[in-house]
Amino acid sequence: MEAIYEPPQKNQKQGSKLLEDKNKDKVDEFLKFFGLEIIGFIFTAIEVNDKKETQESRSIDKGYLVSGPEYIQAAKFQNAYRNPCSKSTSGEFGSKFVSVMVTGIADEDEPNEEKDKKKDEKKDEKKNDLKIEERIEKKKNVSIGTRAFQVSNQCEWLVRDKVVRANKKDFSVLEVRKSKTNYVPRILFTTTIEDYKGEKQYAPKIQKEANEGDSFPPEFFFIKLADSIPKKTNSPIPKLCFS
């Protein structure tokens, strides 16, 4: 990634609405001149508490990782920026367009090596009650990080064909549209038993279906991507240095 451009937009409670961009032609000329292309979009989903500390606002355990409107927006972008494919009858299939969310990430979301080290530390800490309290405090630490993702091809097609939409009352789900003229397929999804009395992670999974007007959890559309920063950059954009 070489640059970030912020288009005109209107902030909403969940996500944002992109407005008409009068500078689009100039931006396209800039990209063409430097041999760049649009590869994705980045947005923030950061919440702070009364002490102005960053909170882990997005996680499956706390409700949802990506909101319904954000799924819809990602699918629209992926439909707009298609991937060329010589084997497809239409000449394109899928998309390489990436969505990146900047949000509060808990310390638990660390690489496996770091987790293994902490496991060893925890064994020693159990011997001391004071260290256990410190460990609990550290567990609450949250830093700002990024989550890169795409939505599946199924999500792209359902949004393209106007089968699903965001739920205006519950941002954690998507809703199957009602139509009097077009055929609306049923959406099958797997979920856990809500009233399971044991630990949630061991709850039995069952298959359900969403018909017209029904809502469903869209987590199965989520495709996690790895993101990193290169050690060396070779930017085509000249940098100005001032002494």
Question: Can you put this structure into words, describing what you see?
Answer:
- With 243 residues, the chain is of the alpha+beta class.
- It has one domain (9-20, 30-225).
- 23% of the residues lie in helices and 24% in strands.
- It has 5 helices and 13 strands.
- It has helices at 24-34, 68-80, 112-125, 129-139, 153-160, and strands at 9-11, 16-18, 40-45, 47-48, 54-55, 98-106, 142-151, 164-166, 174-176, 187-192, 205-210, 215-216, 222-225.
- The strands form 5 sheets. A 4-stranded mixed sheet has the order 3-6-7-13. A 3-stranded antiparallel sheet has the order 8-9-12, covered by helices on one side. A two-stranded antiparallel sheet has the order 1-2.
- A hairpin with a 7-residue loop joins β8 and β9 (174-176).
- The two termini are 27 Å apart.
In short:
It is built from five helices and 13 strands. With 243 residues, it is of the alpha+beta class. It has one domain (9-20, 30-225).
Distinctive features:
243 residues; alpha+beta; four-stranded mixed beta sheet; three-stranded antiparallel beta sheet; 5 helices
